[in-house]
Amino acid sequence: MQHAQGKWLLIEKTSNKAIGYVGIFYINEIKGTELSYALLTEYRGKGYGTEALEGFKQYAFDILNLHKVCALIHPENIASEKVALRAGLVYNKNLNVWGFEFKLYTAKNPLHKTKSQ
């Protein structure tokens, strides 16, 4: 099976404006699937990031049947760390990817079934 990849545009419901994106990418260097997200500055701090990440995490688990997802977060991006934590990801470790230091946050699918289960 190939790895799911892509970005989805986030649209604010009441204004119908594009406010950011959420994406999913397989990263060879960490052998894992990353959920990425970004919002336009004026839409940060309003819960949109958490809502998008939670929903996309659920999509990754329920539809794509992924066992685990992660987020690579720059160590100084405290707001992004808070989004990841509110969306149910937990800090795993610091690691260097592509020559940059990141904090790795992960979430495991509680319903994932492997062939041995």
Describe the structure.
By secondary structure, this protein is an alpha+beta fold. The protein has one domain: 3-Layer(aba) Sandwich (Aminopeptidase), CATH 3.40.630. Helix content is 21%, strand content 40%. The chain is built from 2 helices and 6 strands; from the N terminus they run βββαβαββ. The strands form 2 sheets. A 3-stranded antiparallel sheet has the order 1-2-3, with helices on one face. Helix 1 (48-62) crosses helix 2 (78-86).
CATH architectural type = 3-Layer(aba) Sandwich
CATH class: Alpha Beta
CATH superfamily: Gcn5-related N-acetyltransferase (GNAT)
Mean pLDDT: 91
Helical segment count: 2
Poorly predicted runs of 5 or more residues: none
* Helix content range: 10-25%
What is the spatial order of strands in the main beta sheet? 1-2-3
Provide the gyration radius in Å: 14 Å
- Structural category is alpha+beta
Query: What's the helix-strand series?
Result: EEEHEHEE
Q: What is the straight-line distance between the termini?
A: 20 Å
CATH topology: Aminopeptidase
